[in-house]
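User: My collaborator and I are trying to settle a disagreement about how two of our proteins should look. Neither of us wants to argue from intuition anymore, so we agreed to look at predicted structures for both before our next call. Could you fold the first one, then the second, and keep them clearly separated?

Assistant: That sounds like a sensible way to settle it. I'll keep them separate. The first protein:
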Amino acid sequence: MKDVDEGWPDAWRDFHHGVRIGALWVGPPWEEPPADATPVVIDPGRAFGTGAHATTRLCLELVQQAEPGSLLDVGTGSGVLSIAAAKLGFAPVAAFDIDEVALETTAANASANGVDVEVISELRPAALAVMNIALDVVEAMLPKLTVERAITSGYLERDELRAAGWHRLERQVRDGWAADLLERG
């Protein structure tokens, strides 16, 4: 039988480092954010989302360009997008997920960041939705949303989003991944 390093439960922390995304710094609680950045401290726990993936970065870049207003984070995971939005002045901010662990993780991360993010298990209207989830889920969710605009990602640059009643205003790409700013109509 092979010996297992006693530090194995925390070894993943060696790979989770903070990243600068415009005015934001998204990182773990064991790293110090730069003094000139707005910190978004995320401990993903058992939920998806550290902020380092290209799709998350693309979403956060587009959120920083949007006019602050009400925001709905669909498939919130760790809450990184909704917490960043709250720090950028969006309000009210609601985080939706069907996974109870994701909602608990988002609530804990929002509290740790000192922002007001309401975790919800039913969709609600907002001016802007953000979704960083698989393409088929984005396409299935868009018709169910009562929002004016949406920032979507979680799919490859070669993927073409198909959603009746929506048109693309902007597309950004990074490392083969894409994010779209969409408008209803």
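The second protein, kept apart from the first:
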Amino acid sequence: MQPIKWSFSSLKTFQQCPKKYYHTKVAKDIKEPDTTATLYGKSAHTVAEEYISNKTPIPPAFEYLRDTLDALVSIPGIKLCEEQLGLTKDLEPCAFDAPEAWWRGIADLVVLDEDKELAWSVDYKTSKNARYADVKQLDLVATAIFKKYPKIKKVKSALLFVVSKEFVKATHHAEMVAKYMEKPSQDVARIEAALENGVWNPVSGPLCRFCAVKQCEYNRS
């Protein structure tokens, strides 16, 4: 069996419902449509990227982002927007689209200060508040930064909820990489077992009625 390629979002999909993972990531016979929320999120990410990278004027609808983005611009170091990251199964750095890529992710903003062996990692969130924040995503991105930029020994990470202006912060250290990857690796092993056994049990939950897998017994939309 070929090693799977995974991301934080695909791992979350499997945890939410293996059957949904199967249809959207394995069989790929169902594509999740964009929603108003996802389209808004993509637009906000583009505004942030273009402002930080090129000082492109902020559209009036996103003017509320200015103070936050200016604060990010003021961080000393090299700014890398939409930084594509990849890791092999042996946790070696690789290109995002490399055939050997095992994990793949995109960091919304990375700021490198190699002289201080320090980096900042920021992921923008456009949901209303930080109530359901999950910092495990930050563990994966920090691991990839340590591997791609070996001079970096510490990463100051944050989920930035741009609407509520909340920061959910974490600090990562290079010597802790094995610990950061322990739980995700266990979860990936569960996906590999499902691939081998062909068992993709559906899970009932409050989001079932919004799911794109209409043929599921739990989808009553």
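Some points you might bring to the call about the second protein. The two ends are 36 Å apart (CA to CA). DSSP finds six helices and six strands in the chain.
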